[in-house]
Structures are given as C-alpha cells and as structure tokens.
Write a structure and sequence with these properties.
The protein is mostly helical. It is built from seven helices and two strands. It is 65% helix and 3% strand. The longest helix has 29 residues.
Length: 137
Amino acid sequence: MKRSLITLVLTTAALLLGSHLAFAAGTQAAAPQATASKTKVSSNSAKDKAATRSKLVAQGKLVDINGASSAELRKLPGITDATAAKIIAGRPYGSKAWLVSHNIIDASVYEGLKQQVFAKQSNKDATKNAALYGKKK
C-alpha cells in the first residue's frame, strides 16, 4: 500500500515537471519576437508621454509635487491646507505614488488626482534633490 502510494506520488510529480518543462520550451521561441515589439512600442509611447507631459505642464494642468507651492497643491481635488503642508514637509518624492505609500494622502484621494500630478527629479542624486526641495531657511 505504501509502495503504491509513493509510486503514484512520484509519477504525478514527474508528469507535472515534464509538462511544465514542455510548456516553457514552447513559449520560449515566441518570447524574443514579443520583446522586440514591446520595446519598439514602449520607446514610442515613452516619447509620446514625455511630449504630452511637457504640453500639460506648459498649460498648467500638471502639478509637480516636488516643487509646487501650497496654493498650487490646494487647487488639486481632495487636498486641504493640512494635506498640502504634509506634502511639502515630505519632499522630495521619488514618484507620485509615494504620496500613498508614505501615508501622506489616502488612496481614494490619490485616485482622483494621480492624472494631475508628477514628481520631477532634478538630479539623479537623492541628497541633492533633498537639498533642492527641502525647507528653505
């Protein structure tokens, strides 16, 4: 009884492993083509996103959370005086999603304003950004 149970388990494991390897080998051939097409699309869409962002910034529709004043932040939906002060105190942000991950605003408020904000990074060095966007004395 024990021997037949062990044989059954080993046979099942071998079949599962074999089917997994066969599936992986079949999908590996299609991967380079898919990667090449995604790379082309993402490079074009990245350029399009950058162009769109610069147009929106020029029109005043996007707000940089790392450089906006309290008045500019309060114009965003769901942002109060206290929330604007918390945003300013928490600078610099690596991305706009840090507003939620650092408990500055609620996720529901973030969903309402995520299309209207961005987090500009002037320098690649975080300490330089902190000095640039930090509190001025």
